[in-house]
Amino acid sequence: MGIQILSKTNQAGRSRSATIVTAYLMKRYRLGFSEAYHRLKSVKQDVQVNSGFEGQLCLYEAMHCEVDTSSPVYKQYRLSKITEKYPEMQQVPRELFAVDPAYSSSSEVSYRCRKCRRTVFRGSSILSHPVGGGASAFGHKKSRNLTGDVQCTSYFIEPVLWMEQALLGVMDGQLLCPKCSSKLGSFSWCGDQCSCGRWVTPAFQLHRNRVDEIRQLSMQKQDQVPTPQTPTPQTAQ
Ligand SMILES: [Zn+2]
Ligand SMILES: [Zn+2]
């Protein structure tokens, strides 16, 4: 079936068709991108997936062949695409920003400024990343605890609406609390390296020691009930 689609398309549509067929193979046969693409090429040698589509297929693989626009992987990918599209960062689509948690209610875990207690982001805004090589990535010892584990000292998050003024028109800068102006972290549209060694592009990071994690009362009540569902404390990524 896939082969028929390919033979009917012109040059311009060929990359798109190859992408669709590759995505189909990935989902249908639970293959990774390179395996699926390799199999397609073995039956139709002149197929070509351009680098843009290749990036999307790798994302598709990372999301386990489900398109979930709320997943951190998807959000990080969308942010990196925006950086390519708006190199001067004068106008960034508003939907890219998470709503300001100070002006909306939610039962989610939230994080607030340690100094003035203003809520600055929610748990769903955290864009977690696989922990990097740590000391080896820096060439010196940094951010390792006593057991030798690598630690991320910042939360990398999606941009939140209160950051908008600080983010536009510049490539990097500080992120200050919108209420008390204490320094919470920094951002860079070009990306930044986490303390664990991993590069994150673009990067919006708030230091873990400048914010407090707040869990809702309803969740704390569950602690009193002796069930195995007690939430794990202070380890949300
Ligand atoms: Zn990290
Ligand atoms: Zn503050």
Automatic annotation (TrEMBL):
It holds the Pfam family DSPc. GO terms for molecular function: protein tyrosine phosphatase activity; protein tyrosine/serine/threonine phosphatase activity. Residues 218-237 are annotated as: Disordered. InterPro entries: Dual-sp_phosphatase_cat-dom, Prot-tyrosine_phosphatase-like. Keywords: Hydrolase, Protein phosphatase. Its EC number is 3.1.3.48. One of its GO terms (cellular component) is nucleus. It is an enzyme of class 3 (hydrolase). Residues 220-237 have a biased composition (Low complexity). Residues 11-62 form the Dual specificity phosphatase catalytic domain. Belongs to the protein-tyrosine phosphatase family. Non-receptor class dual specificity subfamily. This is protein-tyrosine-phosphatase. It comes from Scophthalmus maximus (Turbot).
